[in-house]
Design goal:
The protein is an all-alpha fold and 81 residues long. It is built from three helices and no strands. It starts with a helix and ends in an 8-residue tail after the last helix.
């Protein structure tokens, strides 16, 4: 399970670089932070149960944050109108 956290850190790192190249600096910073956190967790060698609890908390935090953002902060519309 620790290898999967390293794989997730690899992909969040790829997305962070792509966001940085695309001039989306806030999103790049968020993904660089996720990359560091996931990479650190990948080398802790915890038990599989703890890794699953951490991943469940990670998903819960994401879904709550995304729901809050899309409900209260997101301005509907397309483009820069």
């Amino acid at each position: 399970m620790d290898r999967m956290f390293r794989v997730m850190s690899f992909w969040t790192g790829i997305f962070a670089v792509l966001f940085f190249v695309g001039d989306m600096y806030n999103m790049a910073l968020l993904f660089f932070a996720q990359t560091g956190g996931l990479l650190a967790l990948g080398y802790l060698n915890l038990s599989e149960r703890v890794y699953l609890y951490i991943f469940g908390a990670y998903l819960t935090l994401f879904f709550v944050g995304f729901t809050y953002y899309s409900t209260f902060l997101l301005v509907p519309g397309f483009g820069n109108h």
